[in-house]
């Protein structure tokens, strides 16, 4: 008896692509019906074109009858030419409308997906790969275009053509029709059985494309590190392996599609041979006329053509549903604030610096806060891997890591500067993330002005907080773009003043574009210290009542650190600061210092008090807090 084996993994521990979520046709309809007026017009054109096509065999039959009788053709030829021209014009205009509408479907799906991505909880980004998310916006949404451009709406006119041809063929010769329907029934049954495999293979192929995008994004974003480590060839091999995986899945889709696409052609050829053979015999026996046989054959071609369109539509729709499953997985995720009303039904909007709410309450207060990062286990290729020993014993959908904060309680009075110090991993940055409500406590409360943060509107909460992250991110674009991120109404004079205050005047001077100078991807055209000062300048320009600075001077030399402290001191007047301290000079300027270790507070007080009473703080101070 064979033992179950674990799912196959890549060299980075990721599982091979699982089936993933499946979208239904009903979930596809909103994207299509968003363009209902145009689609109705296309459907009308399709029906008119179908009627024009159905009239052509009747006129051809009439032409044959007239010629056999030796009468002049007259208006019949001109009518036939007019029908052909009208059909061509309708087909061309209909194609343009469908292509334009298909692009509209892609646009609307991308808008929805990007809007959802930018509103997801921060925890979702902790467990998903950026490249895969970008692939869903770029590649997966493109697949939806095929729904409109490859036969779905045209199937409306095709249905009219099919039914009309079927009725005409029934009138001409029921025997020939019966033989034709038998061949077509076999073709339809085969396509139906294969269509489900197309959807599954398409989803897996799109997932592999997401893997490729994630690998490329990883390699490009770390290209300097990779080259410095001499790992270019190894990284290239990894990306190429992912690309080959995507190629294999694409070939699998092509193989299945290759079985479906020729079915309509085979059905047409077999039907034609049957009709030609049996029809010739029936003409010889006098059961039908030559004109009727010719008309029947023309109607046969007209019936098979929309059938081929229907088969193409089935293939394209199933491919689109495979991609839509990945899109819908993201769209179905709750927004960051989806459960805010459940947490606090009477959410309030608090005024600047919480004045007038509870003037006696601290600006920020932690009350017995416990927190552990939740690690989700998404069932898609972004899954970092199933750690279950048994493939039939899946890991839980959510698991919790080692707790980060354990019963943290402290208060930050209004207008004061509080420094958080402690070894790496003590929970300092997590405290700032909780203040920003990137996460909510597992237990306990974080309060602002005496109010639980969960009762405060998120937008209003964050409008009162300036946050400079540890890695000081800089957005691709210009200096002005970065500065205006938190204060879009600031003038150029204000932007230049805040840059001068953080000693970035040299950056302005070295580029003729001034504030319009490009900073490059992730601010690569700036030094590490310049990126950090630009991030601080962005927060200072917004001038919020509360500033959160996460090791904001760690990349600065002595001169720039002094200028930075002066700039912060200037803007800090009358404001509340929570600073994660990296250097002793930052700590000694604080009104109060909170020492953390292992997610717990082990001491609070001034610099002098802590040096005397807390051994860990004394050790950190002796090493200038360079941890």
Automatic annotation (TrEMBL):
It is found in: Cell membrane. GO terms for cellular component: plasma membrane. Residues 375-401 are annotated as: Disordered. Residues 40-319 form the ABC transmembrane type-1 domain. SMART domains: AAA. CDD domains: ABC_6TM_LmrA_like (cd18551). It comes from the Bacteria. InterPro entries: AAA+_ATPase, ABC1_TM_dom, ABC1_TM_sf, ABC_transporter-like_ATP-bd, ABC_transporter-like_CS, P-loop_NTPase, Type_1_exporter. It holds the Pfam family ABC_membrane. Keywords: ATP-binding, Cell membrane, Membrane, Nucleotide-binding, Transmembrane, Transmembrane helix, Transport. It is a multi-pass membrane protein. One of its GO terms (molecular function) is ABC-type oligopeptide transporter activity. The chain crosses the membrane at residues 38-55, 75-93, 152-172, 178-196, 256-278, 284-305. Residues 364-623 form the ABC transporter domain. Signal peptide: none annotated. Belongs to the ABC transporter superfamily. Lipid exporter (TC 3.A.1.106) family. This is ABC transporter.
């Amino acid at each position: 008896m064979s033992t179950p084996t674990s799912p196959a993994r890549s060299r980075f521990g990721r599982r091979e692509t699982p089936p993933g979520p499946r979208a239904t046709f009903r979930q596809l309809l909103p994207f299509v019906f968003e363009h209902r007026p145009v689609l109705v017009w296309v459907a009308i054109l399709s029906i008119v074109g179908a009627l024009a096509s159905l009239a052509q065999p009747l006129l051809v039959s009439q032409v044959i009858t007239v010629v056999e009788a030796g009468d002049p053709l007259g208006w019949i030829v001109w009518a036939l030419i007019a029908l052909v021209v009208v059909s061509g014009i309708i087909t061309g205009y209909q194609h343009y409308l469908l292509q334009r509408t298909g692009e509209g479907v892609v646009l609307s799906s991308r808008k929805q997906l990007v809007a959802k991505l930018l509103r997801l909880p921060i925890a979702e980004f902790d467990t998903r790969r950026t490249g895969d998310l970008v692939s869903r916006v770029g590649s997966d949404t493109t697949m939806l275009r095929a729904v409109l451009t490859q036969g779905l709406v045209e199937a409306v006119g095709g249905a009219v053509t099919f039914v009309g041809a079927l009725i005409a063929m029934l009138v001409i010769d029921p025997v020939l029709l019966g033989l034709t329907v038998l061949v077509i029934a076999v073709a339809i049954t085969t396509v139906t059985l294969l269509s489900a495999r197309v959807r599954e293979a398409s989803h897996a192929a799109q997932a592999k494309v997401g893997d490729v995008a994630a690998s490329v994004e990883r390699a490009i974003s770390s290209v300097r590190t990779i080259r410095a480590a001499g790992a270019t060839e190894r990284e290239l091999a990894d990306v190429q392996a992912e690309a080959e995986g995507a190629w294999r899945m694409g070939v699998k889709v092509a193989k299945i599609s290759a079985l479906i696409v020729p079915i309509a052609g085979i059905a047409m050829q077999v039907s034609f041979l049957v009709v030609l053979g049996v029809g010739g015999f029936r003409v010889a026996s006098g059961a039908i006329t030559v004109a009727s046989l010719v008309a029947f054959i023309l109607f046969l071609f007209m019936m098979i053509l929309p059938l081929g369109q229907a088969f193409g539509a089935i293939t394209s729709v199933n491919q689109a549903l495979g991609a839509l499953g990945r899109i819908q997985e993201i769209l179905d995720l709750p927004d960051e604030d989806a459960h805010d009303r459940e947490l606090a039904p009477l959410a309030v909007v608090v005024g600047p610096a919480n004045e007038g709410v509870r003037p006696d309450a601290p600006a920020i207060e932690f009350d017995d806060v416990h927190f552990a990062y939740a690690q989700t286990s998404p069932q898609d290729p972004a899954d970092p891997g199933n750690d279950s020993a048994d493939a039939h014993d899946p890991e839980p959908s959510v698991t919790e890591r080692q707790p980060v904060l354990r019963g943290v309680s402290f208060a930050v009075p209004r207008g004061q500067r509080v420094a958080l110090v402690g070894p790496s991993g003590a929970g300092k940055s997590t405290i700032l993330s909780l203040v920003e409500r990137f996460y909510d406590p597992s237990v306990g409360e974080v309060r602002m002005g005496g109010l639980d943060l969960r009762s405060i509107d998120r937008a209003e909460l964050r409008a009162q907080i300036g946050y400079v992250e540890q890695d000081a991110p800089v957005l691709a674009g210009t200096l002005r773009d970065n500065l205006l991120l938190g204060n879009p109404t600031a003038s150029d004079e204000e932007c230049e003043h805040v840059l001068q205050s953080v000693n970035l005047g040299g950056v302005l001077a070295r580029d003729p574009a001034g504030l319009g100078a490009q900073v490059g991807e992730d601010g690569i055209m700036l030094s590490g210290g310049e990126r950090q000062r630009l991030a601080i300048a962005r927060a200072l320009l917004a001038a919020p009542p509360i500033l959160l600075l996460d090791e904001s001077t760690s990349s600065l030399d002595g001169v720039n650190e002094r200028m930075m402290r002066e700039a912060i001191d200037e803007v800090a007047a009358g404001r509340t600061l929570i600073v994660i301290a990296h250097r002793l000079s930052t700590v000694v300027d604080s009104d109060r210092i909170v020492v953390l270790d292992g997610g717990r507070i082990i001491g609070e007080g001034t610099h002098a008090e802590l040096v005397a009473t807390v051994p860990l703080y004394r050790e950190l101070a002796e090493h200038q807090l360079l941890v």
